[in-house]
Each structure stands twice: as C-alpha cells, then as structure tokens.
Amino acid sequence: xxxxxxxxxxxxxxxxxxxxxxxxxxxxxxxxxxxxxxxxxxxxxxxxxxxxxxxxxxxxxxxxxxxxxxxxxxxxxxxxxxxxxxxxxxxxxxxxxxxxxxxxxxxxxxxxxxxxxxxxxxxxxxxxxxxxxxxxxxxxxxxxxxxxxxxx
Length: 152
Ligand code: IDP
Ligand code: MG
Prior knowledge:
Layout: E1 3-10, H1 12-16, H2 20-30, E2 33-40, H3 44-50, H4 60-67, E3 72-80, H5 82-90, H6 103-107, E4 116-118, H7 122-132
The protein binds inosine-5'-diphosphate and magnesium ion.
C-alpha cells in the first residue's frame, strides 16, 4: 500500500471534554506517524471551505457555528493506508451507529458533536492538508522504531 497522509481534526467538543490525549494516543498506538499538529480556532472562512461540500445542507450553518466555537486540534498523520484506516479508527458519522472500539463509538452520542473529523479520500486529504497547514508546518522525519512497524 502507498504511503499516504491524511488530515484529522479533534473538534471543539473533543477539546472541551479533555479527549485530546485519548485521541492522539489511539493514532500513535496504531502505529501512524504524526507529521503536523497545531491548535487553531477556525475562522468562518476556513470552516466554510473545509465543509464546502455541505454548504447546501440544512445543518451547515450550525456546523460552522460549532466548529468555529473554540479551539480545534488539527493534525496530519502519515502511514500506509492511513486515509481509510483513520476513517475506521474514527467510526461512522452517527455515533450511535459507530462500532464500539472506534473513537465515535466509544466517546460520542450525537451526530452534531461527534468529536473528530478525518478526510474521506485521497483528494479531500490533499485539499484539507493544504487548507489547514502550510508546507513549513509539516515534518518529514523517521521514527526510531520505524522498523518495528513497517514490513521490510
Ligand atoms: P464525516 O464527518 O463522517 O465525514 P459528513 O457526512 O462529511 O461526515 O458530515 C460532516 C459533519 O457534519 C459530520 O461529522 C457532522 O458533524 C455534521 N453532520 C453531518 N450530518 C449531520 C446532520 O444530519 N445533522 C447535524 N450535523 C451533521
Ligand atoms: Mg466528511
């Protein structure tokens, strides 16, 4: 599988509820590599671009209000198949339908407060990484235990 990068964000509810360490730990323990991390309170412009595909949906205004209501933890994770795998770690959009063991399945109950975002494919991953991060904010590095995670 090709080395990929994906965009993941802990939404304001996850930050307010003190779930940052719990969520970061799940991606670390899985074996993915953190290459970008920052705390940002998104502007309405940024939120609108990020959720542009949902602009016509009835929940759009509320979603933008929510995502701009406080700090978000924006991240870029790297690894083999990380785009699809992150979506699996995150779980279904509706937390009551998300499997136990997933982040939303374990930590959320409400679709409008579902704790975390993850890019849904290669094109959105590229778009969202470029939207939230500048090139200088992303780090290319080799973890010292890399050989224990990656088949040689
Ligand atoms: P995703 O986050 O699993 O990719 P999307 O369908 O892309 O799900 O929706 C983006 C976000 O919009 C969801 O995570 C959720 O916070 C919000 N959302 C989606 N559908 C609804 C809804 O019916 N009511 C309220 N919020 C919604
Ligand atoms: Mg989505």
